[in-house]
Amino acid sequence: MNVSPSRKRLHLSTAITSLDHPSIGRSQKRLWWPTLYAASPMFERPRGTNDWGPEDMAKRRFVESRFIQLAESFGFREVSTPTFESLELFTAKSGPAIVRELYAFRDQGGRDLALRPEFTASILRFYVSDLRSRPKPLKLYSTGNVFRYEEPQKGRYREFSQVNAEIIGGAPLASDGEALALGIGTMRAIGLKQVKARIGNIGILRGFLPFPPADQAVVLHSLDKRNFPMLDAELGRLGRPDLARPLRELIELSGDVSVLDKAAKILAGAGSAGFEYLQKIADLLDAYGVSRKDYAFDMGVVRGLDYYTGMVFEIDSPNLGAEKQVGGGGAYNLVEVFGGERIAQTGFALGVDRLVMAAEAEKATEPPRSLDAYVVPIGEGAQRKSIEVLTSLRAAGLAADIDLVGRGPSKNLDYANAIGTRYAVLLGEKELKAGKAALRDMASGVQREVALADLVDAIRSPPVTRGPESAKPKRRAAGTRAARARRR
Q1: Do residues 464 and 397 share a domain?
Q2: What is the pTM of this model?
């Protein structure tokens, strides 16, 4: 359809161009006619989101696969829950103030919904509605995207990916040890050398603070955020300014098991059961083979959320500097909030974006799988047989592709080299009649004839190295005019 320039309406403030229909005159009457839209390059991704290219996705899948493999070796099984849930699910878990941190909306049916900001609430809703009759403990894991309306920063986006693990119905100590071993073990499975889990016990602080839960929540939040003016003001309001000093001394303690005795002295005997519990955690981690260099007892790990009840932890990758925290979790009590019976729960989540950053910093990522073979049909008569050869390579488990553009052999070799293919399989009509293919090692340039029946084994075998007497091969491939002339 031809549209005169005078009839175009170009909206530079948007990414859509509207084109008026030229055949409709002013005097003509029509109730409706379609508006045509021409795409323009002005669309941008939403703030706080990312586009991930093939190389990025290879790193992300590498990190996720290490978690999945380890979680399944621990007996965890995968579950999936909706990307959006009832808004009330999240306000029941975290209070109404959470709404300003969510992507919340009302659908066309008038229902208040929100994109999930994490996995735990959805998994516990699923447990209460469908899974609670299953044998305990339930060990569940999930992976996927979550959403939070926060100020974007390096490694922290509005849409991001997490790996998540939950244990429901296990004995608290055993479940806490298992969760910690999986979390720290995931970091090691990725290949990270700089790993540090910081373990605390929020139950100690809850037992020490002589206040109702609502007031405790404010004090714990101020400790979690290191907001000491807020802490002093709240303790003053509650008539216990004397608690400010021991609390501030306590949260500065971090180190090996010896800090537990120091912390107990600061609290003058309060929280003794909690300190004994953390000592047992250390013994459990020894049994799991977790090095004591991989974790510290940190009395400043508060995670000031109402539902955490006992052991809490955060996991860092120190090589990331200010963005070192990659995840955290602990023991919590949420099932009752969602209508279930009281049951022990422990879980954690790790951020995939931070894990990838850590793996890149330590050069721990694996390169993406390269294409094993790129099939080059030479001549129209070779097309069908080349597809059959391609299919046989794929059926044997090899990653194989074929020319879909119709390039000449030389340009196909350039393409195969550009995408990092290991071998080019050149199939001319003469070679096919003889039941052979020309197999070129793209790294060394060595080219040889291989029987089609042996092609899979040849691609799987170690590459043939060039001998010192071998001349550098020409760019022209078997089946080209020059190659045929040389053979004559």
Answers
A1: yes
A2: 0.82
